Amino acid sequence: MRFVKLILPVMALAVLAGCGYRLAGRKGDVGAGRTISVPTFTNATVNYRVEQRMSEAVRKELARTTHYKVTSGPVGDVVVSGEVVGYGISPTVFDDAGRASQYALSVSMKVLVTEPSTGKVLLRNDSMPLRDSFQLSQNPGDFVPEDPAALDRLAQSFASVIVAAIVHRNP
Fold first, then answer.
1. Where would I find the H helices in 18-167?
2. CA 96 to mean position of chain CA atoms
3. Does residue 11 sit in helix, strand or coil?
4. What sign has the CA pseudo-torsion 80, 83, 88, 92?
């Protein structure tokens, strides 16, 4: 009985003190009190609104995972600029009739993250290839364009990579 009286308070203290772990998805202090600007990227391709989707995905990911105040203007403590330099869709799988049933979407990006106050380049990637695939319905009457959804998936993947590179960079 004496053993239980001694161990019970020690166990309660250990449980209340916590083990020091925290959730990995927490924002921490990354960007606290700072502004990050993500102006709409430029588009060197002839495809409509690709740059807008990529820019918006980066803004949303920054707002979701950091404490930066995210703006779309050209001025901030940190500026993320980018350019869509390539866009292509090509068939990858064909059915028995010779019609394409699956396509690959590829987008090439240039990204530059700078700190204007110091002129320091925090991240630079002049050739960032991104790829995704999508399938078309086999019934011609059920045509639904799937490439916008594939582009949205690519934009989210791109945004996650860029934000992770900003957050986890070595100063």
1. 50-65, 147-167
2. 37
3. helix
4. negative
- How far is residue 70's CA from residue 63's CA, in Å, rounded to a whole number? 6
pLDDT in tens, 133-147: 888 777 666 666 778
DSSP letter, residue 95: -
Q: Counting Cβ atoms within 10 Å, is residue 77 exposed (0-12), middle (13-18) or buried (19+)?
A: middle
What are the start-end ranges of the E strands in 95-148? 100-115, 120-135
- List pLDDT tens digits, range 91-102: 999 988 888 888
**DSSP state for residue 41 in the 8-state scheme:** P
- In sequence order, the 6+-apart residues with CB closer than 8 A to the CB of 163 are 58, 61, 62, 65, 66
Q: Which of 139, 141, 146, 144 is nearest to 102 (CA)?
A: 146
Q: Which of 12-26, 36-50, 78-92 has the lowest mean pLDDT?
A: 12-26
pLDDT of residue 95: 85
- Which of 45, 160, 56 is closest to 106 using CA atoms? 45
